[in-house]
Write a structure and sequence with these properties.
Layout lengths: L1 H11 L3 E5 L33 H11 L5 E4 L5 H13 L4 E4 L12 E6 L7 H8 L10 E4 L9 H12 L6 H12 L18 H15 L11 E4 L13 H12 L4 H15 L4 H18 L4 E4 L4 E4 L4 H8 L3 E2 L5 E3 L6 H16 L1
Parallel strand pairs: 1-3, 1-4, 2-3, 4-5, 6-7
Antiparallel strand pairs: 7-8, 8-10, 9-10
Length: 363
């Protein structure tokens, strides 16, 4: 019903439809998959309703929407046959193009603004992203429908791919999708033939840190391991749920803010947040200020950072940074931390000014 109504709606506004299939023939019978619950394959099963050849899908659509003009395009056609089909679709002589991923790049058809992807769980994340980019190339709203089996027949990796594509829908989301794809598949081997999987054991961030350390060690460069200081504050900064409703996007923004190293990086992330979600609420402003102070503390090797209305205190290893802070007016507390009284009314912005002023005076 959804397929028929969506096609009829698109055709009623003078548009065209892509219908993408993963293969030309039937999906191959899979071996036992330990990631699926209660999977005892391979035994003969009743053919699935969504396991159709590309020609069977075309015939299904002709019967579902008799008024639609349906064409089929795939890589097994001759060059002349394929060119004829694509040319007819571009000219508007076909309403529905049933095709494989041969159409995932190089096409710009503003009239085509509805897409169906059969067995979307069988596609890679990059493929789905590229396919989705074939529609929405005009002022008309575009619709991309991912047709998937029942949840018990979808692997965990496929589920994560589909959730990622649903989460990142805004303009310019390609980098986030590529990062998620890399984390799901793994980064493979630098000196081997394996192209995926190595990241999954340690996680993407840890893998990147390990890779940077290995490259620095091989190049004879010093290895710097920055410590993220433990932060103690009176008033927390955070991203309100009503400001960024999607939890995945909030987590991504927290991650990016916590990783900034310079004022320019912080300003870029904060500008992007305001551009995407509107003016910052007070909680987000405070979060940005806290992350700015934290990046300064991290840069001088601080392990803890306390920010309140009456003092800024941090634990810094003995050495150059500690001497510079003491020379700039910081006092040593009984517990070994260095402390200074911030200008009124205190808080993250005052703490940042204290640290920057102290470091500037000591240089």
């Amino acid at each position: 019903v959804i397929i028929r109504e969506s096609i009829e709606r698109e055709l009623a506004r003078g548009g065209q439809v892509f219908f993408i299939t993963p293969t030309i023939g039937h999906m191959p019978m899979a071996a036992v998959d330990p990631r699926l619950p209660n999977d005892s394959r391979p035994q003969r099963r009743k053919p699935r309703d969504d396991d159709r050849t590309i020609d069977e899908w075309a015939e299904y659509l002709r019967k579902l929407v008799p008024a639609a003009r349906v064409g089929v395009g795939h890589g097994s056609l001759t060059a002349t046959e394929l060119e004829t089909v694509m040319t007819r679709f571009v000219r508007g002589e076909l309403d529905i193009l049933v095709a494989t991923t041969i159409v995932e790049s190089g096409l710009d058809i503003p009239r085509a603004n509805t897409m169906f992807v059969a067995r979307a769980d069988a596609f890679g994340l990059a493929q789905l992203y590229q396919l989705r980019g074939r529609i929405g190339r005009s002022k008309d709203r575009a619709y991309c429908y991912l047709l998937v089996p029942e949840p018990e027949h979808i692997t965990e990796e496929a589920r994560r791919r589909l959730e990622t594509l649903q989460r990142f829908t805004e303009l310019g989301a390609g980098f986030q999708i590529a990062s998620q794809d890399l984390e799901i598949r793994g980064g493979g081997e630098l000196l081997g033939a394996k192209q995926s999987g190595a990241i999954s054991a340690v996680g993407f961030d840890q893998y990147v840190r390990m890779l940077e350390r290995a490259v620095a060690e091989l190049g004879g460069k010093p290895i710097h391991s920055l410590i993220d200081p433990e932060l103690t504050i009176e008033t927390p900064g955070f991203i309100p749920e009503e400001y960024v409703p999607d939890p995945g996007q909030r987590l991504d923004l927290y991650k990016r803010l916590s990783a900034v190293d310079t004022d320019d990086e912080l300003a870029a992330v904060m500008a992007e947040i305001s551009d995407r979600y509107g003016p910052w609420p007070g909680e987000v402003v405070l979060l940005g200020e806290l992350m700015g102070v934290k990046s300064i503390a991290r840069g001088i090797g601080a392990t803890t950072l306390e920010i309140s209305s009456v003092r800024v205190a941090l634990a810094v290893p003995d050495g150059g940074a500690a001497r510079r802070l003491l020379a700039a007016g910081f006092k040593k507390l009984p517990d070994g931390r260095l402390s200074i009284v911030p200008p009124s009314p205190g808080g993250a912005a005052a703490a940042r000014r204290c640290l920057l002023d102290a470091l500037d005076r000591a240089t």
